[in-house]
């Protein structure tokens, strides 16, 4: 079918991961579908191939409608771009759509590591909901409704070809944000859908509430994708890239930044510095991290440093007091009792806050805000901490950091901080 004009992008008040409505045609028979991030659709000679089913509900319904405005062909395959929850919660709607049309059931395809990830998510469902609640500032009930899990019908390891001739597409393993991420490559048009490996932000290695991610493996994936020499590259988030040279620059520069962070962090670890000392020592050069596609809107260079450090060190923070700790409630009670000049702590922290030194004020106020006891100064410290967390949130660029600061403030004000270890 003929290309259709791009449809409107997401308004500013849309949820962060929902990028809008409609589609863009990026090559003959190749389309970006807006949903939870950018999904992708390819018109192959065996039918439609869609990467990511969306989060369900109205968003997935909109994706189906947008695709049907482009093609009436049957849906041959639904593919998981990666195993993170939400991106394929809408699979049942696509299956029902195919059944209503009288089409055969589409193939559900994912990388071989997706089933293992989903098994872990089922085992830790309560934890996953709580972590998502903090990271995205949504109530837990939202995730119970929107984090449905679906197992793929078939998996592949490194590469899977769908279709034949010039209308074929290739699914490539692209380990990056997850070890089960894939990319789609349309060789005839030299169009790449990078999925989770290619985003318009600093790669989100080291996201505070998530498991370890490997920056070097992500760099290797970007370098491998560059060897395909794409002329169009669709990102999971961010505008589509066009031109072989600009795409190569984005891929290889991002890979270089990830390798730089690994090398510099390891060098400082080898000097004997701990995590906090490394973060204080490191400067992130503008020549590397000033690139528009590395802005810290989701990931952050300091996150990567922390993940590298975590990958090479144990859980211990090097403070011998924490090696075999007392009960946190008992310790907090004793700390509260030991601080005799509580008014002095409040005054000093407030003085820092009055100068806009929000982070330093938080460090000082934690002497009281993390303590327990009946002293009114402790309750006051928690209220001050909540207010200063909101101020600090206005200083950070990362969406994740901002949400974690704000959700922590919410819990302090609601009195639910202790159960989550926030104090």
Describe the structure.
With 423 residues, the protein is of the alpha/beta class. It has 2 domains: 235 residues, Metallo-beta-lactamase, Chain A, CATH 3.60.15.30; 95 residues, Serine Threonine Protein Phosphatase 5, Tetratricopeptide repeat, CATH 1.25.40. Strands 1-2-3-4-5-6-7 form a 7-stranded mixed beta sheet, with helices on one face. Strands 8-9-10-11-12-13 form a 6-stranded mixed beta sheet, covered by helices on one side. Helix 4 packs across helix 15, helix 13 packs antiparallel against helix 14 and helix 14 runs antiparallel to helix 15. The longest helix has 27 residues. The radius of gyration is 24 Å and the shape is elongated. The termini are far apart.
Name some characteristics of this structure.
6-stranded mixed beta sheet, Metallo-beta-lactamase, Chain A, 7-stranded mixed beta sheet, single chain, alpha/beta, Serine Threonine Protein Phosphatase 5, Tetratricopeptide repeat, 15 helices, about 425 residues
Task: List strands and helices in order, with pairings.
Elements: E1 23-27, E2 30-35, E3 37-44, E4 47-51, H1 57-68, E5 75-79, H2 91-101, E6 107-111, H3 114-123, H4 125-136, H5 140-146, E7 154-156, E8 159-162, E9 169-173, E10 182-186, E11 191-193, H6 215-226, E12 232-234, E13 241-242, H7 244-270, H8 275-281, H9 286-289, H10 301-312, H11 328-338, H12 342-354, H13 358-369, H14 376-393, H15 399-414
Parallel strand pairs: 4-5, 5-6, 6-7, 11-12
Antiparallel strand pairs: 1-2, 2-3, 3-4, 8-9, 9-10, 10-11, 12-13
Helix pairs in contact: 4-5, 4-15, 6-7, 7-10, 12-13, 12-14, 13-14, 14-15
